[in-house]
Write a structure and sequence with these properties.
transmembrane; 3 helices; elongated; single chain; alpha/beta; transmembrane helix
């Protein structure tokens, strides 16, 4: 039995660490769900006028409303689940005293947007998407096609403030465009899966410890 004491203690120590890691992930899950609930509440809040100098951190997801005229912008490659590939239509919204970017929504590959109305009223959320990485191609300027909503670069290209409104509703609406509003669904929340992994490893660790102790005891009988 003495030969089994150290393997048993080591097994219990390892299982304890794995269980602690699983419990920590459950605590992180509770924290993340509270954060997501706060973000969802902010996204769906009462819209206000676009701030004069919005902050990309403090004003992310801020609900806003604006009125202005549309000017041609760019297409950004995108996809929608169960629909497939298409484009986000990112145009310029001229509000009179300033120009901002407006993500009008999703356009299927086979469709063409209708004529731009003289004036629109949009309700949406400010957003500064983090969609650019080392694998993002440079925009195809010849075909007016972009591969990410790079707000700073789009603003410089189209001559607007570095501000993007992602539309929830536009009046009058273009029946061909489907609004693609921001939500919290794209924010990673994998803590439940991590917790299950750590707890499962703890069960396996305890099982292997029990098997080792059993074999040691059997060998000394």
């Amino acid at each position: 039995m003495r030969r089994a004491i150290w393997p048993l203690l080591f097994g219990l120590w390892g299982a304890g660490i794995l269980i602690w890691l699983g419990t920590w992930q459950m605590q992180r899950l509770e924290w993340k769900e509270a954060v997501l609930a706060e973000i969802d509440a902010r996204i769906g809040g009462t819209p206000i006028a676009v701030p004069a100098q919005p902050d990309p951190v403090a004003d992310r997801f801020l609900p806003v409303t604006a009125t202005g005229t549309l000017e041609p912008g760019v297409l950004v490659l995108a996809s929608v689940k169960l629909i497939g590939a298409g484009h986000r239509v990112v145009d310029v919204l001229d509000m009179g005293d300033r120009r901002v970017l407006l993500d009008r929504g999703f356009l299927k590959l086979q469709d063409q947007p209708g004529p731009r109305p003289d004036q629109i009223t949009v309700t949406g959320n400010l957003h500064w998407p983090d969609e650019v990485d080392g694998y993002t191609p440079d925009p195809d300027l010849a075909n007016n096609l972009w591969f990410a909503r790079d707000v700073e670069r789009l603003a410089a290209h189209l001559g607007t403030d570095p501000v993007l409104i992602v539309a929830r509703t536009i009046t009058p609406a273009d029946p061909v465009l489907a609004p693609f509003p921001v939500n919290s669904a794209g924010i990673p929340n994998d803590h439940w899966e991590y917790a299950v992994t750590w707890y499962s490893l703890a069960v396996v660790w305890l099982g292997m410890t029990a098997l080792l102790v059993w074999r040691i005891r059997r060998g000394t009988d």
